[in-house]
């Protein structure tokens, strides 16, 4: 607890602002993006299960 407090005080005193995003979080995210292949784009046959265009299906859902 003591070390946490003195590092927090130093952080504030030096004028840093925390965005709560840590280096190891960014590294893990970048690594997972390299390992996972990108998703395939939807082809011309892809659509909603109702057969309606996506924009129309969304409009009908909200009414």
Automatic annotation (TrEMBL):
Region span, Disordered: 35-63
Top-level taxon in the UniProt lineage: Eukaryota
Source species taxonomy: Eukaryota, Viridiplantae, Streptophyta, Embryophyta, Tracheophyta
Protein name (record): Casein kinase I isoform delta-like protein
Keyword annotations from UniProtKB, A to Z: Kinase, Transferase
UniProt keyword Kinase, yes or no: yes
Gene Ontology molecular function: any one: kinase activity
